[in-house]
């Protein structure tokens, strides 16, 4: 009797292990297929400005929206993540030999920035295009024009991405998505909104927060991030959130964004403060005004 029961248990355990192995293998193989899939996205060429004010706008966006933090202030690329079994090196995107953008047409820049898609139709990994999809034509044009006039570099980084096995499997199974899978590619470019310390302008600025905090700004575990990264904070006034209670005043909010520290002096981990600290007062005041309008959500609902 006992031997029969043990035999059944071993068979059940073996079957379970086979199922788990099949799921893991499916995720692993499917990840490779997803990385090589072709996405048909039509991107229109836009005008690239040459006037000083527009190039200054491009410089501001490059430094405050995460471009410099990943690709370097000179556009030569840099190591972005190296830990938790994950390695990410962002490529050279400025002028010079070996740049991934060396043969980009204007529409290729637009496709990469707005849609997270390479010129050959494959998805860009790690690139947070969901944060940039709703940038106006003027801002995308200014950003590209600025990047194209950076000083030429004779040597730059080549893109390299190594996922730890669990992340690769989750990506293959669709539990982690690349930006191209998240974006509604049919949306037209965003219409410009007046700049000012308003919730309307803040909504435009807050697009840069969606990659980590989610489209609903309720935070949670950051998809595709290293396993040791903490969950992104809930930016809504949910019952489990202290974000807007702690930073109810715009002055406290701006001090945190500029310093990377809580009112207690404690450093805030993971947040991209090299970029966020570059936001100007108008953008910060608008962002704070917008966050105060968010409806309450439970943390982690993205």
UniProtKB/TrEMBL annotation:
Any one GO MF annotation of this record: metal ion binding
Organism: Roseateles saccharophilus (Pseudomonas saccharophila)
Cytochrome c domain residues: 53-151, 197-295
Protein's UniProt keywords contain Iron: yes
Protein name: Cytochrome c
Annotated PANTHER family: BLL4482 PROTEIN (PTHR35008:SF4), BLL4482 PROTEIN-RELATED (PTHR35008)
Gene3D superfamilies, alphabetized: Cytochrome c-like domain (1.10.760.10)
InterPro entries per the UniProt record, alphabetical: Cyt_c-like_dom, Cyt_c-like_dom_sf, Cytochrome_c-type_DH
Keyword annotations from UniProtKB, A to Z: Heme, Iron, Metal-binding
Taxonomic lineage: Bacteria, Pseudomonadati, Pseudomonadota, Betaproteobacteria, Burkholderiales
Stored Pfam families: Cytochrome_CBB3 (PF13442)
